[in-house]
Every structure is written in C-alpha cells, then in structure tokens.
Specification:
21% helix; alpha+beta; 3 strands
Length: 94
C-alpha cells in the first residue's frame, strides 16, 4: 500500500512539473519573416542611422494588392529587427 501511495505522489509531482515547464503557444510566436518590399528583405538595410531602440515603420504594396505594415526596432549594433508585420486592403486606392 505504501508503494502505491509513493508512486502515485511521484506521478502527481511529475505531471505538475511537466505542466509548468510547457510554454503557452500564444507567447511563443515566431518572428515575422521579411517579404519582398521589406527593409531587411535579402539583407538590403545593413545599418540604420537612428539611435538604438528607435522604432522604424515601413509600408509597401505586397502580394495581391494588399498593403503591408511593418515595424522594426533598431538594435545596439545598428541593424534592424522586424518585430511586427500585418497586411490589409490597400486603403489608398479604395
């Protein structure tokens, strides 16, 4: 009887530890990937003249006539890191 209780406790503790160590999929999003027209697509922009931490916005006409909105953050070494990207209808021609 004692062995059953001990193994039951081990199972409960193990499932608790496994449950705590998994990450929420909503918080582990993959970084957006540069599209043709992005500032960093194909390594176009190597260094930015802005201070580190500055947010740089970019808008361009993407695939199928959708307007793409992007936000970059200038890194300490002067490179740009794409942090946000979304697409919507091209409001300029509606």
């Amino acid at each position: 009887m004692k062995n059953l209780t001990t193994s039951g406790m081990i199972l409960i503790v193990a499932s608790f530890i496994i449950g705590c160590s998994t990450q929420d999929p909503a918080t582990t999003r993959a970084a957006p990937t540069p599209l043709p027209g992005s500032l960093t697509y194909g390594g176009k922009v190597v260094h930015s003249p802005y201070k580190p931490g500055t947010i740089v916005k970019n808008t361009f006409l993407g695939q199928f006539g959708y307007r793409v909105f992007e936000r970059y953050v200038v890194q300490p070494d002067g490179t740009l890191r794409l942090t946000y990207q979304t697409a919507g209808p091209d409001f300029l021609w509606d």
